[in-house]
Amino acid sequence: MSLNRSRSTKLSDDKEKIHIIGAGPAGVSAVETLRANNFAGEIHLYSAEDSPPYSPAALGEYLLQDEEDILFWKGRNFAEKYHVVEHRNEPVIELDPENNILTSRHSNYHFDKLLIASGSSLHISSVITGHDKPGLLNFKNLSSTEKIKALAQEKGQEAQAIIVGGGFIGVEIALCLAQLGIKPSVLNRRGWIMPRLLDKETASYVVKDLESQGVNVLLNTEGNEFLGEEEITGLKTTSGQILQGDIYIAATGVKPNIEFLDGTSIKTDWGIPVNSRLETNFDHIYAAGDVALTRDFFSGELKSHGLHPVAVNHGRTAALNMLGQEQQYQPMLSMNSLKELNFKLMVVGELNGEVLKKEGEGYLRKIYLQEDRIVGFVLLGDISASGIFLSLLKKKTNVKDLKDKLLNSDFNNSYLTSFI
Ligand SMILES: Cc1cc2nc3c(=O)[nH]c(=O)nc-3n(C[C@H](O)[C@H](O)[C@H](O)COP(=O)(O)OP(=O)(O)OC[C@H]3O[C@@H](n4cnc5c(N)ncnc54)[C@H](O)[C@@H]3O)c2cc1C
């Protein structure tokens, strides 16, 4: 039974109503948890897009292989399966937290409990003028990715793409386009790519691989004006260079979707700060996923994590608390890998502190220690030690007596049973 785009909340007023703003991994995980724990009330699920719930982390596979099963990872019939009132393409525009009313593009709805899981969108600084002209795409949502796909097909191989921003998303779209035969150029204003995730040395391996796959990497290059009248025809850099392409993509960062909270008494910062139960400053209103600010594993600071497993974990934790089960969110580690590279790469935790390093042909192992405990590591080429390093890190094991072994290539997951 899918009650797609219902306008009414009067279906059965005696039933408890949980409304969820956002059908990404956080919202979906909350729905699954509610139903798995026998929640028999109404669940309303809002999204700003006209598609079944999808996983943004699978946009690359979708672009390359049309992998709809990976994209719609819970099935196209998710709403039906979980008896959800689905409000597709119905963004929430206002919220009245005191009176439990949300206003969508279409109507007003009353809720008993609310989960805000509205995720994040492209953030582009106003310093780059002309970014609101038609023709600028992003790799953050499905509708824009479909436009990239259509343009790539229309323009054909050898078309040029200009990608502004060399973070994780900029690098991933560059690799995907290169694999489709497009010639991508990635601009990054810093001296190395993915500066939030990678140290300079690891980034240089990634750049070599990008270049070998046909990606033109422009470091220390900052775009500041999109040119063109009706639509974008070029990008001017701060040094006056003009870059022209057939496809223009902004990958300049993300910002949590909280505009609909403007003027409400829900506390916001960069996103929505929540406590360890994922509650906002209203105890019947929760936030989860990219929009929520939760404690960092190391620093304890509140931040938006921007990771799929964190969103899933948040959604689950919030749902259990909504059901009255006391659940504390356990901060998760930052863990990243890039799928389209020619080598395996795993980057985990904090890349700060004493460094132990071993390098070889297509091989890099870097371990970061603070007070003799592993706080982060980079494994490039061979990731067979990921499990043991993760375990030592999470358990905060003192590795002083293991230091001479950690860099040996045979120190890998087979040691798990010996040391843990
Ligand atoms: C290209 C790409 C690759 C990625 N790769 C990885 C990876 O390899 N590993 C990893 O861990 N993470 C990855 N991520 C990040 C991961 O996808 C996100 O952290 C995750 O999707 C966050 O889930 P979420 O549910 O919080 O938000 P989102 O997935 O952003 O979903 C937000 C939902 O809210 C809806 N919405 C927004 N505003 C409103 C509104 N006003 N009213 C109603 N609905 C609204 C949207 O339509 C959407 O349904 C990647 C992201 C991208 C874009």
What characteristics describe this protein?
five-stranded parallel sheet; 3 domains; disordered N terminus; 420 residues; Enolase-like, domain 1; alpha/beta; FAD/NAD(P)-binding domain; binds flavin-adenine dinucleotide; globular
Question: Overview of this structure, please?
Answer:
- This protein has 420 residues and is α/β, with parallel strands linked by helices.
- It has helices at residues 25-36, 59-65, 68-71, 78-81, 142-155, 168-179, 200-212, 308-322, 386-394, 403-406, 416-419; strands spanning 17-21, 42-46, 84-87, 92-96, 101-104, 108-110, 113-116, 120-122, 136-138, 160-164, 183-187, 216-218, 223-227, 234-237, 242-243, 247-250, 254-256, 272-273, 285-287, 292-295, 302-303, 335-336, 345-349, 354-360, 363-370, 373-380.
- The longest helix has 15 residues, at 308-322.
- The model is unreliable at 1-12 (pLDDT under 50).
- The structure holds flavin-adenine dinucleotide.
- Flavin-adenine dinucleotide binds next to helix 1, helix 6 and helix 8.
Write the layout of secondary structure elements.
Blueprint lengths: L16 E5 L3 H12 L5 E5 L12 H7 L2 H4 L6 H4 L2 E4 L4 E5 L4 E4 L3 E3 L2 E4 L3 E3 L13 E3 L3 H14 L4 E5 L3 H12 L3 E5 L12 H13 L3 E3 L4 E5 L6 E4 L4 E2 L3 E4 L3 E3 L15 E2 L11 E3 L4 E4 L6 E2 L4 H15 L12 E2 L8 E5 L4 E7 L2 E8 L2 E8 L5 H9 L8 H4 L9 H4 L1
Parallel strand pairs: 1-2, 1-7, 2-3, 7-19, 9-16, 10-11, 10-16, 11-12, 18-20
Antiparallel strand pairs: 4-5, 5-6, 8-17, 13-14, 14-15, 20-21, 22-23, 23-26, 24-25, 25-26
The structure holds flavin-adenine dinucleotide.
